[in-house]
Amino acid sequence: MTRRRRTKSRTVRLARRWGDRCRRLLRRAVDCCRRTVVRLWRHFRRPTVIIDARRRQARRLRREIARAARTYARALGVELPSGLLVVVQRVVHEGRQLNGLLQAFDAPDGDRRYVIHLALSVNGRPVSDDELLAALRHQLTRALEDAIGKPVLNVPLELEMPRVRAGASVVELRPEAREPQDGRRAMPIERIEDDQAS
User: Residue 38 sits in which domain range?
Assistant: First the structure.
């Protein structure tokens, strides 16, 4: 009788362990499936990015642009428009050279497609990555107006740093020779070079 009880309690313990293991494995599988679905959804919600640059630079910029676009849209509480295309090219020209250009196309099915053109250089000056991302965010704000509405307040801010004039010398090139306190005179540079040459 005691042997039966022991066998029965052992079977119950084994069944409980097996059930706990199955629940843990099922929870892991569900979490893995959920992460995969979220990753795939994010992948397909990513904007299409075309970059005219070397392969390594293009790969880095593609990641930065996709991440910045998703983060910006998420911060505004909306999703990126479906079919968003970002084209990064050497120059964007619309009558004059621009940092960025937003184009919107109305499809026959009533859907609106957006193309954002970003320039790698403006008037011969290369654009930094920060400037490129700032131009992207500025254009995204206009593309997301359908979802978030038009801004009711717009406060421009311009932080222009004063530039040094090109013709002004920063330091005196040949300061006047001063008499040292011990009474000896300093030797001019030309004379030192002449003495070393001979």
Answer: 8-45
